[in-house]
Amino acid sequence: MDLLVNLSAVCVCVFTGVVSLIKDLNGNHVVQRCLQRLGSEDAQFIYDAACENTVSIATHRHGCCVLQRCIDFATPAQKEVLVQRIAENGLMLSQVRNTHARTHTHTHISNTGR
């Protein structure tokens, strides 16, 4: 029972500032561990934040890494929505200097199924 209480507390803390954590030097690792350890249903709030803040996250050096982990750990449905959001902003993302090329490559690979 303590584990569930602790897990709930962590989720509440992460939920309230997920975009800030994604962009933080240390906080991005917390979000990445949540993606890795939580079930896809419990981590849905992270995918929602990534979809709502795609450009802001993709153009940030730590956010880009979290976005890649979102794609890695997503269910097929979550991946489809997230990749669609990235594609919708593809022109803008391709023109932003700080957007990491790995995001574009990873998204392309995710779309082609390689």
Question: Care to describe what's here?
Answer:
- This protein has 114 residues and is mostly helical.
- Helix content is 78%, strand content 0%.
- It has helices spanning 2-16, 18-22, 27-37, 44-52, 54-58, 61-73, 76-88, 90-95, 101-112.
What characteristics describe this protein?
globular; 114 residues; single chain; 9 helices; mainly alpha
Helix content: over 70%
List unreliable stretches of 5+ residues.
Answer: none
How many beta-strand runs? 0
Number of domains: 1
What topology does this entry show?
Elements: H1 2-16, H2 18-22, H3 27-37, H4 44-52, H5 54-58, H6 61-73, H7 76-88, H8 90-95, H9 101-112
Short account of what is shown:
With 114 residues, the protein is mostly helical. It has nine helices and no strands. The chain has helices at 2-16, 18-22, 27-37, 44-52, 54-58, 61-73, 76-88, 90-95, 101-112.
